[in-house]
């Protein structure tokens, strides 16, 4: 026997990951059901992909921070694989595989588990689930409007409102116009935007230093900070003129207002989104005062599919993680409570009644009821206490005298009232 077999096993979950006990699974399923049902209401179709992908799918776009956070390994065939850090590249791969057979536009959604090896803070883990919704093949701003409507209706279904959350919106073309205005060469702009995306997380002197490392002069940095302090699209328009990004973003905000969500959107020139594949509208959802990490983020990424060798296809989408939204709902005291779990608990009190208990339980289940059968044969008080803990609506007590008459005792766990009921009536009603 090897010495390692005598060592205690580490029973903690892997650092940065989570276990979902039944109470956490109820909350997770509640959230996932809101995501899924809202997407289906909007006509989206669900898809999925394997959590393993070729690492090249994520490293092809050089410069993205995500490439430094991959969980990667070589398999036994020598292939360099990675656990997916995000779903959008997998979506792009799947669309390109069947590009000629698919009828555009596509409206797809998924709820994948994603992995990133990164520093953990509140709202950030090394694994999380993420609701992804994307519209592929719709070039007009209608796609953004529908994506925003989907996102905000799901939030309202969670009990959130415009006094609590905002969608902070910008357009990458506005940022490109700003960088061009201060004479930053086009080939440097993508890398500088990666730095700009970190602005709110860095001390001002560190932010300046990082920009200077990307060959920006002190004068350019000062000019950039002046632009990033602009509070309105009108203020920017006086400097940038008829920027395509400003025109498109006004159209998006007008359409969202017509959808009934006007109070949720707020222009914010500092929104960048660090992934380099974004080409137009970009946005992040947060609480009103931005005291949290971003709850959700996304935008338009018209050039992503062409990066993998396909034609350029317009696309808009978002990723909505489960970790931060649960923190937000908890802080706002808007997490649900679950008052009802089971319709019935069937309780035999001797071994002779177990077969009858199994029969009654399965007949009730065939009707569509949820049923727990307690085979512990403990005293009534103990079993009823467990029924309360499981939030059972009614218990079915199998007492010998009543069974001999073809009856059971049915107890309402809320009112504490009970009555004799014929077994035939119970399983057929």
Keyphrases for this structure?
single chain; 429 residues; alpha+beta; BirA Bifunctional Protein, domain 2; Rossmann fold; 2 domains; 9-stranded mixed sheet; 5-stranded mixed sheet; 16 helices; 38% helix
Structure description:
The chain has 16 helices and 17 strands. It has 429 residues and is of the alpha+beta class. It folds into two domains: 22-331, Bira Bifunctional Protein, Domain 2 (BirA Bifunctional Protein, domain 2, 2-Layer Sandwich); 342-428, Rossmann fold, CATH 3.40.50. The strands form three sheets. Strands 1, 5, 6, 7, 8, 9, 10, 11 and 12 form a nine-stranded mixed sheet that branches. Strands 14-13-15-16-17 form a five-stranded mixed sheet, with helices on both faces. Strands 2-4-3 form a three-stranded antiparallel sheet. A hairpin with an 8-residue loop joins strand 10 (281-287) and strand 11 (296-300). The N and C termini lie far apart (61 Å). The relative contact order is 0.11. The mean pLDDT is 91.
Blueprint (SSEs and pairs):
Layout: H1 22-41, E1 45-46, E2 52-54, H2 56-59, E3 71-74, E4 80-83, H3 88-97, E5 106-110, E6 113-115, E7 127-136, H4 142-157, E8 165-171, H5 172-181, H6 186-196, H7 204-213, H8 218-228, H9 233-240, H10 244-258, E9 265-267, E10 281-287, E11 296-300, H11 304-307, E12 315-321, H12 322-331, E13 342-348, H13 354-366, E14 371-373, H14 380-389, E15 392-398, H15 400-404, E16 407-412, E17 418-422, H16 423-428
Parallel strand pairs: 1-5, 8-9, 13-14, 13-15
Antiparallel strand pairs: 2-4, 3-4, 5-7, 6-7, 7-12, 8-10, 10-11, 11-12, 15-16, 16-17
Helix pairs in contact: 1-4, 4-10
